Fold:
Amino acid sequence: MIDLSAANTAGINAINRMLKSFGCRIPIETVRIKYFNNMVEQVHRSIKKRILPMLSFKSFTTASAKLEGIEVTNMIRKGQLTPGLCPFTQFAVLAA
Structure:
């Protein structure tokens, strides 16, 4: 699926021509959706909201630890816990 961008369509057409020259008989089929980019942006909105304040981290390790904590808390919030393991223990295991 791609949006209505002419650049994306031209790129897929160029790849299809290249594949045809290499002997591939099955082209890449595309489905054009007018507002596809908006749907992608909506999916990433929550990630962007959390990442923006973290752009000032000085080291990769602190940023990585913070992102791991966010992912673990999201797992706990969604109820993706291991049965029989208390949430704090699972958090400690996943965050380590």
Observations:
- The mean pLDDT is 77.
- Residues 57-96 form one domain.
